[in-house]
């Protein structure tokens, strides 16, 4: 099966299953196990950090068809009745496609790209932020921010670059397997396809980031730098030199998690083509 997943991330230590902390995956796997009477492992298109939200996460999971058979709509309804109110499974359907080598549809490898949105209040001198948005929108108190300056800086991120300066941990160091074997370092090269700063009026704003895949905290680290450009502490033209450093030293903290939402994961296959996007055409692949 494949499905879309929506969640409010405030109460969770991220999507990924964790032994000693609440996670979205744990809540979903418990509900699926109850419904199917099987151990079910959920595979997501990508992780989200502690406190980050999702409106369009994508997942897949396998069940033993000989032991469980259910209409997807009834299955979805039953699972949602078992989930907490801040997690919902939607658009559940069977995933029967295979690639040219016979491999089954996979939420991570068959994805073509993602859209993240970061919502913030720019510190507009006339208005103030609606307190009902405080859990899902960051209020930047160093404002007012110049959105044109932020857009000029964001344009430097677009394209394929080494984003080591915007990766929070472990992306550039030597890795070891559980057996202690040295492994090659993970690549920190990523492709950002588009970043647009939207003025929503009265100090409200949103950064939409289309990319093929992101490093750990990459989007929040990029937005944190955009805030410093927006309030005049840095220039947009500083961005290329900061990327070339390949180090977090001297860069600002990541923007707070509560403003970030995974809006969509895109695919060429599945959901009757509803998640095709002209910016995202090639799959992530193995």
Cα-atom radius of gyration = 20 Å
**Averaging pLDDT over every residue, what do you get?**
91
Strand tally: 12
Tally of distinct domains = 2
**Biggest sheet: strands, sense, closure?**
10 strands, mixed
Helix content: 10-25%
How far the N terminus sits from the C terminus, by CA atoms, comes to 20 Å
CATH homology superfamily of the largest domain: Pseudouridine synthase I, catalytic domain, C-terminal subdomain
Number of separate helices: 5
DSSP strand content: 25-35%
Compose a concise summary of this entry:
Helices cover 19% and strands 26% of the residues. By secondary structure, it is an alpha+beta fold.
Question: Could you characterize what this model shows?
Answer:
With 286 residues, this protein is an alpha+beta fold. It folds into two domains: 2-109, 2-Layer Sandwich (Alpha-Beta Plaits), CATH 3.30.70; 114-262, Alpha-Beta Plaits. Helices cover 19% and strands 26% of the residues. It has helices at residues 24-36, 72-82, 147-155, 218-230, 239-245, and strands spanning 2-7, 43-44, 53-60, 87-93, 111-121, 138-139, 159-162, 175-176, 182-183, 189-201, 204-211, 260-267. The strands form two sheets. Strands 1, 2, 3, 4, 5, 6, 7, 10, 11 and 12 form a ten-stranded mixed β-sheet that branches. A two-stranded antiparallel ribbon has the order 8-9. Residues 153-268 form the Pseudouridine synthase I TruA alpha/beta domain. GO terms for molecular function: RNA binding; tRNA pseudouridine(38-40) synthase activity. It is an enzyme of class 5 (isomerase).
